[in-house]
Design a protein that fits this description.
Layout: H1 8-32, H2 39-64, E1 68-69, H3 71-100, H4 105-119, H5 124-131, H6 137-163, E2 165-166, H7 167-171
Antiparallel strand pairs: 1-2
Helix pairs in contact: 1-2, 1-3, 2-6, 3-6, 4-5
Length: about 180
C-alpha cells in the first residue's frame, strides 16, 4: 500500500493542535512554579512525557493514513507536530512575558545565572555577553518556537524509527 503524504500537513496540524494544548497546560505548571516551586516537578514530569505522546500520535497518524509509513514521512510528521504545537505555545509565552511576568523576571534570572557562572570561574567574556542579553516577550516567543522545532528534529528521529513500517508489525498480525 502506498503512503498518503498529502495528509501530512493536515494530520500534523490536527495533532499539533492537541499537542499544543497539552503544552499550554504544561507551561501553566511552569508559570505557577515561580510561586510554588513544587509545581516545577509536575512541569518536568509532563515534559518528559512529550516524546511518548508524540510516539502515540505518530502511530495513530500512521493508522489514519493507511497503516504504513516510511521513516522520512514519520520524521516529517514529528517535526511538523512539534512546530504546530510550538506555535500554539508561543502565544501563551508571549502573553506571560508581556502581561503576567514581573518586569524584572528575565533580568533577575540573567543576574542569578551571571552570579552562578562567576562562582564557576567562567571566562569574563562569556559573563559580559550574558549580561548584554535583553529579551523582549516576542523574542522569547520566537525563541521558544525555534527551540521546540529543534527538539522536534531530535526527538522525532527515534519516534520515526520505532513507528516506521506497517501497523501489522505492532499488532503481531501476519496478514493471513
Amino acid at each position: 500500500m502506498e503512503e498518503k503524504k498529502d495528509l501530512l500537513m493536515k494530520g500534523a496540524m490536527t495533532y499539533g493542535l492537541s499537542m499544543g494544548i497539552y503544552w499550554v497546560v504544561k507551561y501553566l505548571f511552569f508559570i505557577f512554579s515561580i510561586g510554588t516551586p513544587s509545581l516545577g516537578l509536575v512541569y518536568w514530569a509532563l515534559t518528559l512525557a512529550v516524546p511518548f505522546i508524540a510516539y502515540h500520535m505518530t502511530r495513530r497518524y500512521r493508522t489514519e493514513i493507511g497503516g504504513t509509513i516510511s521513516f522520512g514521512h514519520a520524521w516529517q510528521f514529528g517535526i511538523l507536530l512539534y512546530f504546530f504545537a510550538a506555535v500554539i505555545l508561543s502565544l501563551e509565552i508571549f502573553v506571560f512575558y508581556r502581561f503576567i511576568a514581573p518586569p524584572d523576571l528575565l533580568p533577575d534570572t540573567i543576574k542569578q545565572l551571571t552570579t552562578l557562572l562567576q562562582d564557576s570561574q567562567v571566562t569574563p567574556e562569556m559573563i559580559d555577553s550574558l549580561q548584554k542579553i535583553d529579551f523582549s516577550p516576542i523574542q522569547m516567543a520566537i525563541q521558544s518556537i525555534f527551540n521546540n522545532v529543534f527538539y522536534g528534529i531530535i526527538f522525532s528521529l527515534p519516534v520515526a524509527a520505532l513507528v516506521r513500517g506497517s501497523a501489522r508489525r505492532d499488532t503481531g498480525d501476519t496478514g493471513h
